[in-house]
Amino acid sequence: METATATTWVIDPSHSExxxxxxxxxxxxxxxxxxxxxxQVESHGDDFTDAKVSFSADIASISTGAEQRDGHLKSADxxxxxxxxxxxxxxxxxxxxxxxxxxxxxxxxxxxVTKPVTLKAEYGxxxxxxxxxxxxxxxxxxxIKRKEFGLTWDGITEAGAIVVxxxxxxxxxxxxxxxx
Length: 180
Description:
The mean pLDDT is 85. This protein starts with 6 loop residues before the first strand and ends with a strand. By secondary structure, it is mainly beta. The radius of gyration is 18 Å and the shape is globular. It has 1 helix and 11 strands. Strand 8 and strand 9 form a beta hairpin.
């Protein structure tokens, strides 16, 4: 029996975005993103059912649109970018849940802590770009509890409101480029 050759896909950062959303004071949502990241997917077919995903983001590239808040997030109160410069994800399985949807299970490492997480992935399809490269698109979403990863800083207002929620939503729109 022949074994299919693995196909490697890499993230196209100019057509992708990696964001997180967290409630602030329980009443509004702050969105942040990582500006520097890389990742690849290896699969033995074009349907991605056996795909293996690896991803990393540079903590120092975090941006929320507020320089002071970004500095706080990079500090030892939160991500501690100096001691833990990368966030990584390595998949353990990619299970179809519908025609174009998957559960992507894997290990997320952040702040020196590794925990299993499952992300929902919606496959957007494949196409050729102007340069003849094959592209594939995915939107991945999920929620993690930041305190489980050692990001335990808390603040309570005088009125008793929680400053930063424990739940963090992850939203990633990823365009992959098939490698020759």
